[in-house]
Amino acid sequence: MTPVLTADQISRVKATAPVFAQHGTTITKHFYRRMFANRPELRNLFNQTHQASGSQADTLARAVYAYAANIDNLGALGAAVGRITHKHASLNIRPEHYPIVGEHLLASVVEVLGDAVDAETLEAWRLAYAQLAQLMIGVEAKLYEQAAWSGYRPFIVARKEVESDEITSFYLTPADGAAACGYEPGQFVTVKRYVGELGVDQPRQYSLSDAPNGQHLRISVKREGGNEQIPPGRLSTLLHDGVEEGAIVEVTAPMGDFRLDRTKTTPVVLVSGGVGITPMVSMLSTLIADGSTRRVAFVHACRNGRVHAFKTWLGEAVACHPNVTRAVFYEELEATDREGVDYDYEGRIDFARLADQAVLPDADYYLCGPLAFMQAQRDALVARGVDASRIHSEVFGSGALE
């Protein structure tokens, strides 16, 4: 039964929202340390790179703050709950995990804030957490019911194809020989591999980068980091260097509420930065496979031709389908990059230069890329009169669009 908070308890939780705005990250960092010390097996469920950087603690702190601030209007959290529950279901988070998290989160509040939180406020938070847990569990139960399979399933790497200097595609087929499942363009899967240097399994979520075809699931993985500023991505490096054709990987069923609305006939504008191109490739490939005549503007930004994945595919899609246009921006041109062939504009995406092609009053806009990139594109579109309700985005890792 879902707990019901009294008016006084709701007021107590809401009143503590500023506390989480000020001390939330301190509490959540303490929480993760505490939980992993007591339940080390749960490290398998969490991205340890995000743990090390502190970004996961920051994200949790913001989520707790948002919940406390909206405890009397949970409907305002609908979009956030939808995104989080899809991520949870893809990571195979189950009802039995919630009491563990609640125990260590509330204990962390007490251990960090001490006498600043009284018994009545702590009890209000206990009930509020139980309420939130029941809400999430209920939504996730429906996602599990609708999923193509439960938990992790073995897939064979049937093919491995280099798309650019940084991105490689993996074609995955079910190890049991069954057909590949359907999904909605824009959705993602979780891939899990054991990382020896950490001593734990590590999950990572990757957008599907092809149209549903019943033959394979394709993910296209960027090799992360590996320079002085950013250390090598543990799982991306493992996939690039240690997973060859014929290898087995564990995969969860497709999830995600960032998806192309295939029921509409109005224009579509697909806006991506870097590896954010992957769900856009799925969306455009699906529209082409469906025989759609919808107007599509494919807007992409990357550094140069060396890192421009799916360059040939995009050129062919535009050449063969008059309803599809492209606007490719290169920020760091190289001598071999050809204007009008490899790219269309130098610099960063500028919708002022695309007013007739990609700023369309009845279009839906789909954004994927680094958080700062998506925020900039969203702001630019809104400034040019695009209704925010028509702008859809996918966020991996930490953070959310404001």
From TrEMBL:
Gene Ontology MF, one: heme binding
UniProt cofactor(s): heme b; FAD
Enzymatic reactions: 2 nitric oxide + NADH + 2 O2 = 2 nitrate + NAD(+) + H(+); 2 nitric oxide + NADPH + 2 O2 = 2 nitrate + NADP(+) + H(+)
UniProt-listed Enzyme Commission number(s): 1.14.12.17
Superkingdom of this protein's organism: Bacteria
Uppermost EC category: oxidoreductase
GO biological process: cellular response to nitrosative stress; nitric oxide catabolic process; response to toxic substance
Matches recorded under SUPFAM superfamilies: Ferredoxin reductase-like, C-terminal NADP-linked domain (SSF52343), Globin-like (SSF46458), Riboflavin synthase domain-like (SSF63380)
InterPro entries in the cross-refs: FAD-bd_FR_type, FNR_nucleotide-bd, Globin, Globin-like_sf, Globin/Proto, OxRdtase_FAD/NAD-bd, Riboflavin_synthase-like_b-brl
Keywords: Detoxification, FAD, Flavoprotein, Heme, Iron, Metal-binding, NAD, NADP, Oxidoreductase, Oxygen transport, Transport
Domain FAD-binding FR-type: 150-261
PROSITE patterns reported for this sequence: FAD_FR, GLOBIN
Domain Globin: 4-141
Family: In the C-terminal section; belongs to the flavoprotein pyridine nucleotide cytochrome reductase family. Belongs to the globin family. Two-domain flavohemoproteins subfamily.
Biological role: Is involved in NO detoxification in an aerobic process, termed nitric oxide dioxygenase (NOD) reaction that utilizes O(2) and NAD(P)H to convert NO to nitrate, which protects the bacterium from various noxious nitrogen compounds. Therefore, plays a central role in the inducible response to nitrosative stress.
The name this protein goes by in its record: Flavohemoprotein
Organism listed in the record: Trinickia fusca
